[in-house]
Design a protein that fits this description.
Layout: E1 2-6, H1 10-21, E2 25-29, H2 33-40, H3 51-60, E3 64-67, E4 79-82, H4 97-109, E5 114-118, H5 126-141, E6 147-151, H6 161-166, E7 171-174, H7 178-188, E8 198-201, H8 203-234, H9 238-246, H10 267-280, H11 286-298, H12 301-310, E9 319-323, H13 338-348, E10 352-356, H14 361-368, E11 373-375, E12 387-390, H15 402-408, E13 413-416, H16 423-428, E14 432-434
Parallel strand pairs: 1-2, 1-4, 2-3, 4-5, 5-6, 7-8, 9-10, 9-12, 10-11, 12-13, 13-14
Helix pairs in contact: 1-3, 4-5, 8-10, 8-11, 10-11
Bound molecules: nicotinamide-adenine-dinucleotide (NAD).
The site of nicotinamide-adenine-dinucleotide has 26 residues, from α1 and α4.
């Protein structure tokens, strides 16, 4: 089987590489020539554990190819995935221009029956638009070629993308024809051998499933952050409350950790897009509006704690050390990272910032320029620091050398936005420790 994946970003590259890994002849397409040139020589544009070796292995075995010109590869492709970005438009709705450009390209170059699959996260009704865009080009060409448009939203998590793709909890596929259903079943067979379910449904339901999943996860985060803030006011400990509620299987223990708000390329834009879709259909997503508003507030929580401690008027010139910049661990993705909001607030107040992130230094520099110092070692940022802010819960921050820290820092003061440090240990070493959802000084 030959397939094509259009858009070689986080999703497209992982998707293409994982299909190649199970033996499918796969070509990844991107309009970014530099990206494709680098991939051809084994340079990976993103940090994703395990991906580099997999790309190299499959390129060498000639199962994985990289191209910029879709016209060269459509001829004998049975399936074409659209995995380009769907960034938020100015009004919050998903911008479909990249998706529809690809649909147009497909319509211009396809030569036989093809299953076109939207893997990008797209609003309900997009498959219909993709269908129309392809049909229009075929009519212009005077061709009558049959095709199907299927929806196959992606649920991988950055940082665990390979594992998620190779061993998915489930595969959701929206199809309108038996032929497309059969093709998709064949394609995903190698990933279902361990009993993972493939859930077939109609196309609009598949499109909606992705938004519902991300909206639910964002809701869990905002709910827990709201509970954490109230715990702090009332003198309860959110870590204990989390364990208490998480042991109920109806609630579950995963994804109920408080912090400094969700970020990344998916939750913020997908929550916005779903609110917008509802608005366009005269419906109000009241829960999601609150989810968004709690999240915006939560991104400022750590700054507020710093300001409360020092007093706004004393922040000018304070040396702040930051551990973690990426929106979550195991990725260099800085899109919508809460660290950016925090850093901007601290800079406005006149603070001087030195930050360390294991992999996101260059991506952070692209966003924040040289307004902060970027260090290559987690302890280097602590030299003469007035306080440390923990922003991303990278594993290497979980068990730091406190003795070294106290020697380097000007003040033994820590604001932990991810609740990862050991409160008792810090107390015994007389650190002044603040975290989310509990009073560490009690
Ligand atoms: P990305 O920005 O990393 O990659 C998109 C790629 O598409 C870019 O390399 C871009 O150059 C390329 N592209 C744009 N227009 C093109 C065209 N006409 N032809 C060929 N290539 C083109 O985006 P991403 O993070 O991989 O996300 C892609 C989609 O998957 C989005 O809809 C996103 O919401 C969804 N998604 C993302 C994740 C994630 O964790 N990143 C998870 C699930 C779903």
């Amino acid at each position: 089987m030959k397939i094509v994946v259009v858009g070689t970003g986080y999703v497209g590259l992982v998707t293409g590489t994982c299909f190649a890994e199970v033996g499918i002849d796969t070509t990844c397409i991107d309009i970014d020539q530099k990206k494709i040139d680098k991939l051809r020589v084994g340079e990976i544009p993103i940090f994703e554990p395990g991906l580099e070796e997999m790309v190299k292995r499959n390129t060498q075995k000639k199962r994985l190819h990289f191209e910029t010109d879709i016209a060269k590869v459509l001829d004998d492709a049975e399936v074409v995935f659209i995995a380009v970005g769907t960034p938020p438009d100015e009004d919050g709705s998903a911008d479909l221009k990249h998706v529809l450009n690809v649909a147009k390209d497909i319509g211009n170059h396809m030569s036989s029956y093809t299953v076109v699959v939207t893997k990008s996260t797209v609003p309900v009704g997009t498959a219909k638009k993709v269908n129309e865009a392809i049909q229009k080009q075929l009519e212009i060409r005077g061709e009558d070629i049959s095709f199907d448009v299927a929806s196959n939203p992606e649920f991988l998590k950055e940082g665990a993308a390979i594992e998620d793709f190779m061993k998915p909890d489930r595969i959701v596929v929206g199809v309108e024809s038996d032929e497309a259903k059969h093709t998709m079943k064949q394609l995903y067979k190698p990933f279902m051998l361990n009993g993972h379910p493939i859930i077939f449904m109609d196309v609009p339901s598949a499109e909606m499933t992705k938004y519902a999943a991300n909206a639910m996860l964002a809701t869990k985060i905002s709910f827990m952050n709201d509970i954490a803030n109230l715990c702090e006011i009332l003198g309860a400990n959110v870590n204990l409350v989390r364990k208490g509620i998480g042991s109920d299987p109806r609630i579950g223990s995963r994804f109920i950790y408080p912090g400094i708000g969700y970020g990344g390329s998916c939750f913020p834009k997908d929550v916005k897009a779903l609110i917008k879709t509802a608005e366009e259909n005269d419906y109000k997503m009241r829960v999601l509006e609150a989810v968004e508003s709690v999240n915006e507030h939560q991104k400022t929580i750590l700054y507020q704690k710093v300001e409360n401690h020092f007093g706004r008027e004393n922040l000018k010139g304070k040396k702040i050390a930051i551990w973690g910049l990426s929106f979550k661990p195991q990725t260099n993705d800085m899109r919508e990272a809460p660290s950016v909001v925090l850093i901007k607030r601290l800079l406005e107040a006149g603070c001087k910032i030195a930050a360390y992130d294991p992999v996101a230094k260059e991506e952070a520099r692209e966003m924040l320029g040289d307004s902060i110092e970027y260090k290559s070692d987690q302890y280097e940022v602590l030299i003469n620091a007035d306080c440390l802010l923990i922003v991303t819960e990278w594993s290497e921050f979980r068990f730091p050398n406190y003795r070294v820290m106290e020697k380097l820092m000007a003040q033994k003061l820590i604001f932990d936005g991810r609740n990862i440090l050991d409160i008792e240990k810090l107390k015994s070493l007389s650190f002044n420790y603040h975290c989310i959802g509990l009073n560490a000084h009690k």
